[in-house]
Amino acid sequence: MTTTLQPLQNNQRDKNLDILRGFAMAGVLFVFCAGDIGIAESYTNSVMDDAIKWFKWIMVEERMYSMLILVFGIGFSVQFQKAKQKGESLVPVFLRRLVGLLLIGFIHGVFISSRDILFFYGIAGFALLPARNFNNRQLLIYILIVLLVWLNLNTILHAFGINPVRLGSWVPPNNYASYLEFNWQFFKGYHQFYGIYFDMLLSFLIGFYVGKSNLLGKIESYKKWRLKVLVISFILTVGLAVFQYGWLQNGGYEIIIKNIRTDALKKLIGVGMRLVWKIGELSFVLLYASLLIAINSSRIGQRLLRTLAAFGQIALSNYLIQSVLLVPYALWFDKYNNTPPFKGTILFIVVFVFQLAFSSWWLKRFRFGPFEWLLRSFTYWKWQPMKKNEIIQTAKQS
Question: 210-242 in b/e burial notation, b at 16+ Cβ within 10 A?
Fold first, then answer.
């Protein structure tokens, strides 16, 4: 079964989305190299290690995954508009895309890296599909419902007798046989953290709303509006960062809770803190997005960000290649729980520079990244022309 819907050509792509996706993917790589790979319990951080740790935690940690997920939602709105213009249903194509993500995510998460996020994408994406025909009011109501469920999920699960899963510390072993067993157990346990699905769906829906309302296009097109967004997001980001990391994480939350007697009020405050945390996360994303779009609005900025856009254009391949490179390296050289943040940052720079160069080299010759080609061929149920000269030859023949 085929469809007349086809992937976007390079000249049809929104470069801002590729830049945002590339920026977020760089952050994901940094978090893994400078944090997730881990350090020994006996290791004492140097001043540089602590500086990197705090920078990662405040400026990068959850922000980059949120940006990636938001971009996925924006991309869904682009696909929907494309299908609507052609008078076709997006459902078959999108469902195959989600199934493809589930298959790749399962293989990646079990056999290569427990840091997989693709399986979550596939599951949460099914709940994104109903929003395709919503008007703005209905979409906002859907977002509000998902937000309320996410904020109160522990209470809801407890009412159904479902207890939170505890995985313990993230300590993968440094040999592949044991690592596979660890991955399988981690995969089964991690996907019982149901809050991740609702958190991801919430970001998907916000991204879809952003795409539908053309927020990024307005930030790009209207300089005064862009400046207002930058100023507001900067003030909000700094204010919430000081509140969260300067006061709340340094005993502020305990000060609030210890003076409250009723459990209901404690739960309400806990929900409020989660909401504040989410707003802070999104304000960081908005600030980063506004800055990157502002830079890309000039010719000099476009040249500076061209390589990052290429990196983001084949983000799926780069994400999987990171695991293919880093997991064997960590296992072979005994690096799991043995890589301080500073050394991890050096590792990040080496891999990131390589992937920037690889992305530019690859896209000069091919239309898609290798895994994008595989996923899109499955999604559109037709082998896609891979080399750039193949599509030129096909056009001449037709």
Answer: bbbeebbeebbeeeeebeebbeebeebbeebee
Which residues, other chains included, contact 255 with Cβ-Cβ below 8 Å and sequence gap of 6+?
none
Tell me if 113 sits within 8 A of 327, measured CB to CB: yes
| Residue with tokens 């996360």, as numbered in its chain | 281
- What the block records as the tokens of 2 is 């085929």
One-letter amino acid identity for 272? Answer: G
Mean of pLDDT values over 310-333: 96
d(CA 199, CA 204): 9
User: Within 13 Å of residue 41, how many CA atoms lie on the same side as its CB?
Assistant: 3
The answer for 222, left when phi > 0, alpha when psi is -120 to 50, beta otherwise, is: beta
How far lies 28's CA from each of 33, 36, 136, 221, in Å? Answer: 9, 10, 31, 29
Most confident of 81-90, 213-222, 261-270, 389-398: 213-222
Residue 145 burial (CB count, 10 A): 12
CA dist., res. 114 & res. 204, Å (int)? 22
* Residue among 75, 58, 81 at smallest CA distance from 21: 75
Residue 54 tokens, joined: 């705090």
Burial class of 370 by CB neighbour count within 10 A (0 to 12, 13 to 18, 19+)? middle
Residue 366, classed as helix, strand or coil, is: strand
pLDDT at 397 over 50: no
Burial of 9 per CB tally in 10 Å (0-12, 13-18, 19+)? exposed
Cα 42 to chain centroid distance, Å, stands at 32
pTM: 0.90
Closest CA to 129 of 120, 139, 114: 139
Nearest CA to 71 out of 227, 234, 200 is that of: 200
Q: Which two tokens stand for residue 50?
A: 């602590």
Burial class of residue 273 (count of CB atoms within 10 Å of its CB; 0-12, 13-18, 19+): middle
